[in-house]
Design a protein that fits this description.
alpha/beta, TIM Barrel, nine-stranded mixed sheet, 27% helix, hydrolase, alpha-galactosidase activity, GH, signal
């Protein structure tokens, strides 16, 4: 078991968005510490938990390392009206001018990151959320859906998504918050170089055989979640534990991350 780490963000680089990644000191979670992933609702973490991920609208868990989840590259379903009313121009549209619908996420609208103006507008909202996370006591940020460009019918590009990531990562570091890479294991080195990510939240990397692409870049600072709705989930989870359980934080959870009061709740850790 390692001690919590004070990490110096030492990369100094100018990315295409014109953002300079400066030296910042942020505190990271305890590697291989027990953690929980609570996006379906906040509840008292299992005994011994030291790290917890919660939605930005949830209260922090006392005396733990709390990571704040934000949907950074597409909308949350309950926030579609906010974006349509206030920043409709940043919502992605297809060639006929209709909102682009990703079949995998029919209730969420991807952000159009293709212009600097759009990226600045999106970052303005996201950075306000990041400030709220900092004020509320979170120590890290998990910005979800970095991979929208892979699901956009070529309407978006990797470079533009990384440019938005750099804007919010710089803001998070200025608020003394660590920030995670979420998604895109195969681009981990490039994503870290472009945005300055500090750690990764790796969903289903054992099931997708891509964990080494994360660990090669982020070392011990990996939070791995496998899910019970896969074929042979216990085998996947046990294989993950056997391969990395003495080095990394690994859990098995129900897909919708419900609370213990729900019948589908599932939590295991190794």
């Amino acid at each position: 078991m390692h001690l919590p780490a004070l990490v110096l963000i030492a990369t100094i680089a100018t990315v295409k968005a014109g953002v300079t990644l400066e030296k910042r000191a942020v505190t990271l979670f305890t590697p291989n510490g027990k953690f929980d992933y609570q996006l379906g609702g906040a509840y008292t973490p299992p005994s011994g938990t030291v790290t917890v991920v919660r939605d930005r609208t949830a209260a922090v868990a006392p005396n733990l390392y709390n990571i704040c989840y934000i949907n950074a590259f597409q909308t949350q379903p309950n926030e579609n009206d906010f974006w349509k009313t206030n920043h409709d121009e940043v919502l992605l549209r297809n060639s006929t001018g209709q909102y682009f619908i990703d079949p995998g996420w029919p209730d969420e609208i991807q952000f159009n990151t293709t212009t600097a103006q759009n990226r600045n507008t999106i970052a303005g909202v996201l950075n306000g959320w990041i400030d709220e996370c900092a004020t509320n006591g979170f120590k890290g940020i998990e910005p979800d859906n970095l991979d929208t460009f892979t699901r956009s019918d070529n309407l978006l590009t990797k470079e533009n998504n990384f440019a938005l990531a750099a804007l919010i990562a710089t803001h998070a570091h200025n608020a003394n918050l660590a920030i995670a890479q979420k998604n895109l294991a195969e681009f981990s080195s490039e994503a870290k170089a472009a945005a300055g990510f500090d750690f990764t939240v790796a969903e289903e990397c054992q099931a997708e055989t891509e964990c080494e692409e994360y660990t090669a870049v982020y070392g011990d600072f990996v939070l791995e979640i496998e899910y019970t709705d896969r074929d042979d989930p216990e085998e996947i989870f046990q294989d993950a534990c056997a391969a990395r359980g003495t080095e990394y934080s690994i859990i098995l959870r129900d897909r919708f991350l419900v609370t213990p009061s729900e019948p589908d709740y599932h939590y295991e850790e190794c």
